[in-house]
């Protein structure tokens, strides 16, 4: 079943992966840094009119609001969405791998707002001088309704966002491999200090 519903003008759909998608994820080392296996479908994501295109560069200013994501669904299934940065504080020294920006489980169809939000969305916020960071967006199909024991994190807090391994998280909840994914890259711009203030963290 392909769901076409949307709550605003932003949308995303999942398509079959092309060789360019596989090459992009391999080139930028999404596998093995984040995943063991490349997702079966490429998640086509838009921030307003801006598309996420397998590693293209989007600024923190451009991604400060969450995208609305739509994907091909089984109406009887629940889904989990995550967005992570494996490059905190930098790709060379990723001691905070992975910093999670968004984590929502028990999503019925594509209705993210009806899911169980574990971590509220915040956009990219690479520290100055740390170069490009990768931001990976993934969809998992759940085996059923899940009870999550993780602490809930608001979009006003940076505490508890670092050190998540989506690989371990997926294993813990028997999620298997993601069914769709995409990623973009970003580096510091002048919106980042505002985000840090919102999260109550320093540079």
Automatic annotation (TrEMBL):
InterPro entries: PEBP, PEBP-like_sf, PEBP_euk. Pfam families: PBP (PF01161). SUPFAM superfamilies: PEBP-like (SSF49777). It comes from the Eukaryota. PANTHER family: PHOSPHATIDYLETHANOLAMINE-BINDING PROTEIN, PHOSPHATIDYLETHANOLAMINE-BINDING PROTEIN 4. This is Phosphatidylethanolamine-binding protein F40A3.3. It comes from Orchesella cincta.
């Amino acid at each position: 079943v392909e769901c076409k519903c949307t709550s605003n003008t932003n949308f995303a759909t999942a398509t079959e992966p092309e060789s360019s998608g596989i090459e992009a994820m391999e080139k930028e080392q999404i596998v093995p840094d984040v995943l063991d296996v490349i997702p079966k479908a490429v998640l086509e994501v838009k921030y307003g009119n801006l598309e996420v295109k397998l590693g293209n560069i989007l600024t923190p200013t451009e991604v400060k609001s969450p995208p609305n994501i739509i994907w091909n669904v089984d109406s009887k299934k629940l889904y989990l969405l995550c967005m992570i940065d494996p490059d905190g504080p930098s790709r060379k020294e990723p001691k905070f791998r992975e910093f999670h920006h968004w984590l929502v489980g028990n999503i019925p169809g594509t209705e993210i707002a009806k899911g169980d939000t574990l971590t509220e969305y915040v956009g990219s916020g690479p520290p100055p001088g740390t170069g490009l960071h990768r931001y990976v967006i993934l969809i998992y199909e759940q085996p059923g309704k899940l009870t999550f024991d993780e602490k809930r994190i608001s979009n006003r807090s940076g505490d508890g966002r670092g050190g998540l391994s989506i690989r371990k998280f997926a294993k813990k909840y028997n999620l298997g491999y993601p069914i769709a994914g995409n990623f973009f890259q970003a580096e510091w711009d002048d919106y980042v200090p505002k985000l840090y203030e919102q999260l109550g963290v320093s540079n």
